[in-house]
Specification:
With 425 residues, the chain is of the alpha/beta class. It has 14 helices and 15 strands. Helix 1 packs antiparallel against helix 2, helix 3 packs across helix 14 and helix 4 packs across helix 5. The chain is globular.
């Protein structure tokens, strides 16, 4: 009944949140004399803190309306071009000049690990000037009726294959964190079947390919608990009146509590500083709002997908052991021969330890040496692997160069394998 109690608590707090919001506007109103005093700003800050810490954050928007190509600003239109019960495929259609040649087509597979695909807004934004970008927009499991059936690891792999088929020849795929395993599996399945639409290149970023290497707190938790423990303690049924009523899920708020507890002191300090900036009225709070509006927006995962991922990736290590199955058939990474492989890691990653993603280079034994590359970005954690200033400056250009080099549509000039600022090999 924990999920039901969570929903009840959220509903019970609604009148208090509404009252706090109204009072905050009153105290912050410039026509109110108290708004210009330390007392008024302190009251407004306290009320905003209460409202923000008790609300449920809805799905954010990408909000990418334009990009810059060369020295020209062009408009961007977001559109759903492929849809299934548990996922939409979004295309960021750029209004590019007719004279511009074809940019590489990139499919970004966003994590299905609690946060929405908008967590990769910065990833999309950095690639848009140089690529035709698509992204998986996974749907909150609590919003999918039981009549739509289940969604498990096999379905995830099938979705990736279907999207690659839909996008067609010479598509490059990027997997950020969790989808590294199913994306590699999808590439292996397609290559073993001699599928002509297998991706031209595969970029795996901060993914748990082999969690036996430099295990983090997340990996150790999975090793210390049995699969039955996870099933008994974190799987709950969606409460009424949600569309997915009675669907067994891993609730997003549990995933969020786990992420928050890993760096609780950092989050407490951030909220304290946010409060002080509100009181000082120095304009800094907007950065805090933007980050936590995204970070605190979470979605539920289907129970079957979550438990299979825990078992196969974190407990049994099936992929690096050569034991991962898809639709009853063993997934063979050695079958991958024509898909170029780029692996990217962060030096300070506390979710996927250094070496876990690079392990893909070891298990994909038949990819030619001139079609593989590994890059370790110094001084970034997990989030910095796919977002932030170092991603835009150091990592995104390498990805673009790599996919251009390995495009099947045209021969591209070679890309240097050692670039100042990081470690490439």
């Amino acid at each position: 009944m924990f999920y039901q109690l969570y929903e009840l608590n959220h509903a019970a707090m609604a009148p208090f949140r509404a009252a706090a919001d109204i009072m905050r506007f009153a105290y912050a109103n410039p026509l109110n004399p108290f708004a210009h005093t330390p007392f008024g700003r302190t009251m407004a800050a306290s009320l905003e803190m209460f409202e923000r810490t008790t609300r449920r954050y809805g799905k954010p928007e990408f909000g990418l309306k334009q990009t810059t190509i060369g020295d020209q600003t062009v408009s961007v239109r977001e559109e759903i071009i492929w849809s299934r019960p548990f996922c939409n495929l979004l295309h960021f259609a750029r209004n590019v000049p007719p004279a511009r040649g074809n940019d590489p087509r990139i499919l970004i597979v966003a994590p299905m690990s609690g946060h929405y695909a908008t967590l990769l807004r910065g990833t999309v934004e950095a690639l848009l000037p140089s690529a035709d970008v698509y992204i998986t927009d996974w749907i909150d499991a609590r919003m999918v009726p039981m009549t739509e059936g289940t969604f498990d690891f096999d379905d995830y792999v099938d979705y990736v294959i279907e999207m690659l088929h839909f996008l067609g020849h010479d598509t490059h795929v990027i997997a950020v964190c969790q989808p590294s395993v199913p994306v590699l599996a999808a590439a292996a399945v397609m290559e073993e079947a001699n599928d002509p639409l297998s991706p031209s290149s595969m970029t795996l970023m901060g993914g748990p390919i082999d969690t036996r290497i430099n295990p983090t707190a997340v990996n150790k938790l999975a090793q210390e608990r049995s699969l039955q423990w996870f099933s008994d303690n974190v799987i709950m049924n969606v409460p009424w009146p949600q569309p997915g009523f009675m669907r067994p899920v891993y609730p997003g708020f549990l995933q969020l509590s786990g992420f928050m507890s890993m760096n609780l002191d950092r989050h407490l300090v951030a909220h304290k500083e946010f409060f002080m900036h509100l009181v000082k009225n120095d304009g800094e709070p907007e950065k805090h709002r933007d980050f936590y509006d995204e970070y605190l927006a979470v979605m539920d995962l289907t129970a079957e997908f979550y438990l299979q991922t825990v078992e196969e990736v974190f407990i049994k290590h099936s992929l690096p052991k050569g034991e991962l199955m898809h639709r009853g058939k063993r997934v063979d990474p050695a079958a991958i021969r024509k898909v170029a492989l780029l692996t990217v890691e962060g030096e300070n990653d506390d979710i996927s330890g250094v070496g876990q993603t690079k392990a893909a280079q070891t298990i994909c034994v038949n990819i030619p040496e001139d079609m593989r590359m590994h890059y370790l970005q110094p001084d970034v954690g997990h989030y910095g692997v796919f977002n932030g200033s170092r991603f835009r400056r150091e990592i995104a250009p390498r990805i673009i160069n790599f996919v251009r080099q390995h495009s099947r549509s045209a021969v591209k000039p070679p890309v240097p394998r050692v670039i100042k600022g990081g470690r490439t090999g």
